[in-house]
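Q: Got one fold?
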Amino acid sequence: MKKLFVLNCGSSSIKYKLFDLDADFAVLASGMIDRIGEVVKDYSDGFKLIEKSLKQSGALRDFGELFAAAHRVVHGGEVFVKPTPIDAVVIEKIEEFASLAPLHNPFNIEGIKTMIDHTPSLPQVAVFDTAFHQTMPSLAYRYALPNSLYTEEGIRRFGFHGISHHFLAKECALFLEKKLNECNLITIHLGGGASITAIKNGKSEETSMGFTPLEGLMMATRSGDIDPGIVLYLLQSLGKSAKEVDRMLNHESGFRGLCAKDDMREILAMREKGDRDADFAFSLFCRRIKKYIGAYSAILGRVDAIVFSGGIGANAKEVRAVVCEGLENLGIILDLKKNERDVTGACGLHRKDSSVKVVAMQTDEELEIARQSKIILEE
């Protein structure tokens, strides 16, 4: 039995799943350790708790029984375009990208190093959130800034949530009974973070997140697209510091900035009770998504399906209904009765006369990491 340990290490949590690669990726165990730095001292203690839990459940005797470990790494820059076996050089490169994803990469690295400390000889693989978007053409990833900022500083659009978008594309291709390289899709990942991707012939053609995860759709606490002149105004006219502006745009905007809540379930309940701020935030969120669908439909020319996923996309029928309303001219016609369904697997929610399929499904980033890692590990 080949047991693959998949890890997603964040600033205060470790999410994990244990897969059996010999049993079609059967999940042997899963869980999360949170409040690292508070209740749990550090990552090392977190790993010890996970190992103890796996032993008590019978899923694993100890980490020495593992076949390999695979890690989600948020930012791989232009260097990492596919899953990569981890060594000292790879760790050094990932550390170089930490300044581009300071809320993610340092903790991804911490997880990798802690795993090495626990089982030094264990093969490990890094799977990058940016890798799927490395197929974007330069017309999609370049900004209209001085050339030197790209050639010397590497400032460009990278895109994120690539692991999720890749998973959604492959699952939707199966649902459509088509080969992935024959599919033109718009995949919409809506959770605390939100992004939308135009997929042409199975590859990422455009995506909403950019140099950082701040660009694009409105999110739980991130502003998404704004006029960059606002940043200058905050700095120069209002006297805000760069740190204050960073906090405002990443942690105090989006839903939280507009209605003081950042959980869609609470926002929907407030909206149902007539809360005007909640209704405005909800409506703005849906309008931004709709705007991107229109733009990406123009980029792709032919769209086979749009896919809703993430905690909001798969579960909030209200969001899907408002986003799809009025898109009949693009061939997108939602069946409102089907839209009431609970989403299990890939669910078709479109009317029979819709030329573009409307699909909702749960994403599974850990499974996608496992799938990609297996290919590398067995080469």
Observations:
- The CA atoms of residues 192 and 258 lie 15 Å apart.
- The radius of gyration is 21 Å.
- The chain has a mean pLDDT of 96.
- The longest strand covers residues 26-34.
